[in-house]
Design goal:
By secondary structure, the chain is mainly alpha-helical. The chain is 75% helix and 0% strand. It has six helices and no strands. Keywords: Coiled coil. Residues 94-154 form a coiled coil.
Length: 170
């Protein structure tokens, strides 16, 4: 995206979220469903497309808000919201890694424009010297994959536990 491109509209920039929350004719669960529908619509229909970071930030905010609204006394809901925050943080780390790689690719492309092979090689070496080692990067990616797998399992367990808690409520 160039600097003169308009910034993507954030999910909370409009008044859709507050209109849904303030609709007293809707139960909290229905509000949650409507917000999720609006969120999906925002993700897919907004021009220019929302950034991944903004998509995850909106998802994290929605999840935390509704966990607190729908299940204020539930420890499982709090743990679920904590899982969501951890997923968000891992996703942010992955995005940061992708940005480093994308920037390196741009610099490598620029290096090919130097007039001599020697200058091109020197510029490429300078780019590579700034990147984290391949092994270090691969280890970090593997760590993130394991964390996400663990969070996925934990999230499934907590969702089931939350469902059971709600079934046994009077």
């Amino acid at each position: 995206m160039t600097s003169d491109s308009p910034a993507p509209k954030g999910f909370f920039d409009g008044d859709v979220f507050s209109q849904i929350l303030n609709n007293e004719d809707l139960e909290d669960c229905e509000k949650y469903n409507r917000v999720l529908e609006a969120y999906v619509s925002w993700c897919t229909n907004t021009t220019p497309r929302p950034r991944k970071k903004d998509i995850r930030e909106a998802c994290k905010t929605i999840t935390s808000f509704f966990c607190n609204l729908l299940y204020p006394e539930s420890d499982s809901a709090r743990q679920l919201a904590a899982c969501e925050r951890q997923c968000y943080n891992v996703g942010r780390d992955i995005d940061a890694l992708n940005e480093v790689i994308a920037e390196a690719n741009v610099q490598l492309e620029e290096a090919t424009k130097y007039p001599t092979k020697e200058m091109q090689c020197a510029a490429m070496l300078a780019v590579y010297s700034q990147l984290p080692a391949r092994e270090e990067t691969m280890n970090r990616i593997e760590e993130m994959r394991i964390v996400l797998e663990n969070l996925k399992s934990k999230t499934e367990i907590l969702c089931n536990k939350l469902h059971e808690e709600q079934k046994h409520k009077p």
